[in-house]
Predict the structure.
Amino acid sequence: MRVDVVSIFPDYLAALDLSLVGKARRTGLLDLRVHDLRGWATDRHRTVDDTPFGGGAGMVMRPDVWGRALDDVLPAGGAGHLVVPTPSGEVFTQRHAERLALEAHVVIACGRYEGIDARVAERARAAGHRVSELSIGDYVLNGGEVAALVMIEAFGRLLPGVVGNPHSLVEESHGAAGLLEYPVYTKPPAWEGLEVPEVLLSGHHARIERWRRDRALERTAARRPDMVAALDVAALDKADLAV
Ligand SMILES: O=C(OCc1ccccc1)c1cn[nH]c1
């Protein structure tokens, strides 16, 4: 999988040399390239922004500079997926991560200031690329770089071979069951007067599985009632009968 990130702060993406994503790069699972948008600016001051049409505070990133950058990094023929992090985007979820992990070539355009001229996304769509304007949450950052780090980690870890034990990807929060993860414990069995729930030490796998699903349901209902509404209870019941 190839991922290009374009930003006026390319050093912000240095964190991607670390840990699992760094390993995926070194083993060739992930061909990640970071570009400085100013490389496509044409004037002496390497300007990438200008005042907004219609007035208002702040600056807007210029379409011509972004156009030249994306012409160079998006795949010819329009088979790319352009991701634009923005507070006004569709909320990025594990479903998006799963879909992006299947793409051959993703380009992430990191906006700054008040954002990127809207015609940039329009032109990329017209050229046949998939374009997703995605938000990582309901808050405003100074730029898309942090959101790019979040998304690359979220879909990068799903690439085959990146995470050692793929089974650890199955029972996660926001996984297929649509539940939050149950509470986890490790040694010592008693710590600071706090005990690990007895059932987890019982070796009785059916009971342990039921306890875990009950805690996951409880937690999801308490913290994410929105997810409960979307639950496929029939599937859970079937699982229930299985236990
Ligand atoms: O602030 C964000 O992106 C940076 C950005 C991009 C365009 C204009 C302003 C700010 C963001 C918040 N949630 N998800 C993304």
